[in-house]
Amino acid sequence: MYNRKWLLTVFVTVLTFLSLVPSVSAIKSGEESIKGNLVIVGGALGSSNGEVYKEFISLAGGKEKARIGIVPAASGSLKSSHQFKEDMITYGMDPSDVEILELSNHDFKDTETNERKWKSNAQKNQTANHIQQLTGIWFVGGDQLKITDTLLKPNGKNTKALDAIWDIYQDGAVLGGTSAGAAIMSDVMITGGGSLGGFDQSFIYEDISSPDEESVPVFIEKGLGFFQWGIVDQHFNERSRLGRLAATALKYENQGNYAYGIDEDTAMVVSNKKQTIEVIGRSTVTVLDVSHAAIEGEGIKGLDLSYLSEGDQVNVQDKSFQIDEARDLETTGYEYFNFDPLPATGVLTSYGTLPNYLSYSLVDNASADKVESYLYDSTGEGYELTFEQTSDTKGYWGYEDGQKDSYSITHVTMNVTPVNVQFKDNEELFQDYQPSQFTMPDSSFNTDTKGSLIMAGGALGSSNAEVYEAFISRAGEDGKYGIIPAASSSLKSSHQFREDLISYGVDSEKIEILPLSNHDFKNTEEDESQWLKNRNDEGLAKQVGSYDAIWFVGGDQTDITAALLNDDGSYSKVLESLWTIYEEGAVLGGTSAGAAIMSDVMIAGGGSFDTLSKGFTITYDSMSQQEGGPAYLEKGLGFFPYGIIDQHFDNKARIGRLIATDAPHGEKDEYSYGIDEDTALILDNKEKSLKVVGRAGVSVIDLNAQEEGAVWKGDEDIRLSWLTSGDQLNLDTKKITISDHKVTTTDYEYFDYEAAPHSGVLTPHAELNKYLSYALLDNARENQVKSYSFNKEKGFELTFREEEDTEGFWGYKDGNKDDYSFLNVYLDIQPVEVSIQNR
Fold it and tell me: 429-451 pLDDT, tens per residue?
C-alpha cells in the first residue's frame, strides 16, 4: 500500500496542478451567459437507452436542426464513434448531420490512417470554424487524458478547437459524453484510482500507479470545466468509486458544491439557464455533500450521501432535491421491510451494491437505523464504513418499467473508520448447523412433454422485449393466456402483466386473470381467500385446459403451491389441467415466486450467509424470511425436472443458499440454476435445451463432485458457470454453447492488475458474476480471488479459482456494453474466525 507521508512529500506537483485549474470564481462570474446544456453519461450507454439519445438530440435542436460532432479522441479505435453515429441515425438523425471530428492525439488501431496527425487540427482555424457550425458535441469513452491532451495546449491553455466548443456551448449548444467523456466535464478531473486509495487519502498528479498495488492512489488532472457546479465521476456504482470521489471533494473543497457520481447507462442533464440537474436513464446518480465532513486522523466523519433516480432533480443554487412523482411513497415511517440486516461484507450479502443495500436494508427497513460494511486489501488493512439515518434522512419508493422497485434516498450519513480485519481458518465454528429434513418428492415428469418454460428471476421490466417475445411466440399466433395471481398480495401485478402482453400485441380478449388464491387481496372488495375452493372447480379446470400459455406472477411462492396443491399434497383438478396442457405443448412461465415453484424442490425462504452457517428450518415466517435466516424448503410443482431453481439471484446474493440446498437434494448429473433479475431461463422440452434471455445472467451450480452434507464440509470443489443472453445448455450432453458474439478471454485477458478481495458494497463490480468476470476471468494477473462474508466473529472465506477447464468469454451488447460469460470457476468455502481491530 502507498505510504501517505511519502506521497505528500514527493508529489509537490500538486502546486503545478492547482495553477492549471481554472479559477472557479472567474468561471462562475459568467455562468449566467452560458445558454447551453450538458448530457453527462456514466459510461456503458446502451444503444436501447432511447431517453438519453432523444434528450441529447432535442437539446441539440431536434432531428431537423441538430448538427452533431463526435470527438473520438478518448478511444483506442473509431468503433465507439461509429457506433454513436449509428445510434444517432437510429433515433432519427440524418447521417449527413452527424460527423466524426478529426481530433485525436494518437493513432487508432482499426484504421489505415495515422490519426496521430489529427492533433494539429485542434489549432487550425478550419477546425474551429467548422465546430462553430455545430449544435452538439459528443465525447466518446476511453482515456480522458487523451481528450484533454488533444484539446489543451502543453501550457494548459485552450486550443482553437476548445475555444470554439466553449463558444457554441455558451451560445446554446449541448455538450455530452460518456465515461471518459463525462470525466472531462468538471474542472477537477479524476483520472484514476479507487476507493481504497481515496480513503487512504493518497493522491498523485502523474500516472505512476502500479497494478501490483491493491490500493491505487487517486490520480487528479485538469478537466475542461464545462460542468461548473462540482466534481463528476463515472462508472460510479459499478466500479464503487465513492471513496475516491469523497476524498477528492474533501481535498479540493468543492466550493460548497455537491460532488456527483454517475452510474452506467445513466445521465445527468445539466441546464445552465434553469440551474438544475436532472437524472435520466436506468440507474442512479450519487450526490455527495462534504460541506460538514471532516478528516479525523485516517478516517472521515460526516459524509452526506444521497441517491437520485430517473426524473429527480437538483437545484444547484439552494442545493435542494426534487423527487420525481413516480416515487410518490415516502418510506420514512412507512417502511415495507422489518428484518435485522447483516453487515455488507461480501458476495453473500443481499442487495450487494451500495444504493440497493441502503434502500432495502436501511431506509425501507423499520428494524435498522444504521448498517455497516468494510473495504480492505488482502492484508486486512482497510476501513469500516457505517451508514446512519438521521432526522434529515428520507427514502422514496415507486415502481419503474413495470414492477421494478425504484428508490431515491436523501441525506444518509457515512463515517469511515480505519481498521484491520484478520481471518483464521476454523472448521469447528458452525457446530449448530441443522441439516435439511426435507423429503424429496417423487417426480412424475413425463419425458415426452412438449411444452416449454419461461422462468424469470424477478423484477421483470415491461421493456424487456426479449423475455416477453419468447413467451408470446411459444403461445402461438392465436394463443389464449391465463394469469395466476396467487403469489401476490394484490391484483396489481397481474393487471400489469396483462397490460404488458397487450403492449406486445396480444389481443386483450385472449387474456384472463384466473380466480386462484389462498388469501385475500388488498384494495379489492371481493374476499379472494374464497378462491381456494376453485382449485378443484371442474369448470375452471376445463377452462385452463383451453389455454396455450399460463403465467405465475411474483410474491410468495408458498401461496402458489397452497392454491394449487390439495392439503394432502396431491394435485388439484386445476393443477392436473396445467400438467395436461404443458405436456401437450403449452408454455408455462413465471417471475420471482413464479419461477421458484417450477422445480421439485422449492426454496421458499432463507439467506445465503444464514443458510451456510445455520442450515435449514422446518418453520416458515412468511415474506420476512425472504430476507434472511436458515433455508426453508417445500415441495414445488415440478414442471422443471432438471435441477433446483432459485431467483432474484444476483440482487439477493443467493448463491450460498442454492449451494447448500443442492448439496443434500441435487440429483446426480444435474445442475442447479440461479436466475438473475430481469432475466429468464427458457426450457425447451422437445429439444432438451436451456437458453438464457434478458438483461443479466443465470448461474449454473455443479456439485456433482461434492459429498452430501454442509458444503463447507465437502472434500471436492464446487463449480460455477455464468451464462448470459444467447448462451445455451444441452441437457442431454451437458454441453454449454456460448453465443457467437463473444470471444474467449483465456490467454487474451484485457486487464492485468492485483485484485483486492471482494469485501462489501464498495468492491469494484460488486455483483459476484461481474467481480469474477473483471477480476479473475479477464485479468491476466490473477488465477484466484477471494471474498469474505461474516457477522461479528464468524464467517466464511470464499476462494474462486481458475483450473484447466475454466474459460471466460467477452463481447459487446446493446452498443458498447461489456457482456461476459464464464465456465467452470472453482469455489472453495472455508469457515473462518474474524478479528477486527481499530488502527
Answer: 999 999 999 998 887 799 999 99
